[in-house]
Design goal:
Blueprint (H helix, E strand, L loop, with lengths): L4 E8 L1 E8 L1 E2 L1 H19 L5 E7 L3 E2 L1 H17 L2 E5 L1 H4 L5 H8 L2 E3 L2 H7 L9
Parallel strand pairs: 2-4, 3-5, 4-6, 6-7
Antiparallel strand pairs: 1-2
Helix pairs in contact: 1-2, 2-4
């Protein structure tokens, strides 16, 4: 039974965070892609803009989970989105080399605070 859960939140305007609780395997990867697709559909309608997607990795990433990240990277590139990983350095040593290469091909941060600090500042709206 898959114990992984995928949840989303918005830590800042224009930023979607996807949190994987447990291992990013095939099932969690499919859930991650469905949730991103749903959020991008809402963003495409102009309701809640998304410019950055942060994937907060859980306890590990399987080869099939890495495929989901690879697919997400291509979807994001086609839509002009910035995708970054949180916690990749923590899980990479336990991965097979091919899956590890997917993580190394993406921007990585140790935690949410450093990822947000590295993003462009949110736009200030004059009153």
């Amino acid at each position: 039974m898959n114990e992984s859960r995928v949840r989303t939140d918005r830590p800042r305007e224009n930023v979607l965070r996807i949190r994987v609780e447990g291992e990013l395997d095939a099932a969690a990867g499919a859930s991650l892609l469905r949730q991103v697709d749903a959020h991008l559909a809402v963003a495409g309608a102009g309701w809640v803009p998304v410019r950055h997607v942060l994937v907060d990795l859980g306890t590990g990433v399987t080869a099939r989970g890495a495929r989901a990240l690879h697919h997400l990277r291509h979807v994001a590139r086609n839509r002009g989105l910035d995708v970054r990983l949180i916690g990749a350095a923590r899980v990479a040593p336990r991965m097979v080399p091919g899956a590890r290469a997917v993580l190394h091909g993406m921007r990585n941060h140790p935690d949410l605070a450093s990822a947000l600090a590295d993003l462009e500042p949110p736009a200030v709206v004059a009153a």
